[in-house]
Amino acid sequence: MLPNPPTKYGVALFSGFQALDVFGPLDALNILSASTPLNLSILSTTLSPVSTIPIKDPVPGFIGQRIVPTHTYQDAPKDIEVLLVPGGEGTRDAELTQPVWVRHARWVHDGNIWTSSGVSAGIDMIYAFIADQYGQEVAESVATTSEYSRNPDSMNDPFSGLA
Fold first, then answer.
1. What are the residues facing 113 on neighbouring strands?
2. What angle do helix axes 121-134 and 136-145 make, rounded to 10 degrees?
3. How far is C-alpha 105 from the geometric centre of its chain's CA atoms?
């Protein structure tokens, strides 16, 4: 556990974000915040609700969720310590993470940058992050509370070979 683990989180949203990329890690942080007070800022270009439904070529009947941002990028708090950037349609994940992306890794930790390989991998990554920042016991407690079976091996990604 770090002497001063982060307490100020932000999530960068865009139209067509992958719901599990946001809600999975946020649920772990929700549970963590019951014992460790945290601040969360939801960021986007405007304060209008941001949908998981992509603006470009939406499929008729496609359901989605919307999140109302708390801040725009222009008025975001200056003291955010951890920024979560979900994947989904419209992201440039590969461009953003190219320096630390490893094809067969579930997640990669390189200095102060953590990247995950896919949708549910972000959940395993947030638990690894919590273990790194707050301690293994805290990560296990949060996982148990959420009834989540963690994959603690970053190089064990059973989905990496799928197209």
1. 110
2. 140
3. 16
Q: Smallest Cα–Cα separation from 14: which of 83, 81, 67?
A: 67
What count of other Cβ atoms lies within 10 Å of the Cβ of residue 135? 14
Q: What is the pLDDT along the chain (163 residues), one digit of tens a residue?
A: 678 999 999 999 999 899 999 999 999 999 999 999 999 999 999 999 999 988 777 778 888 899 999 999 999 999 999 999 987 654 444 444 444 567 678 888 888 888 888 778 999 999 999 999 999 999 999 999 999 999 998 888 888 776 5
Q: Can you tell me the distance from the alpha carbon of 145 to that of 150, in angstroms, rounded to the nearest whole number?
A: 12
Please say whether the beta carbons of 90 and 58 come within 8 A. Answer: no
pTM attached to this predicted model = 0.87
- Spell out the domains of the chain, with CATH numbers in brackets: 8-91+119-145 (3.40.50.880)
Write the CA distances from 48 to 43, 44, 56, 87, integer angstroms.
10, 8, 17, 20
Q: Which residue has the tokens 């990554």?
A: 125
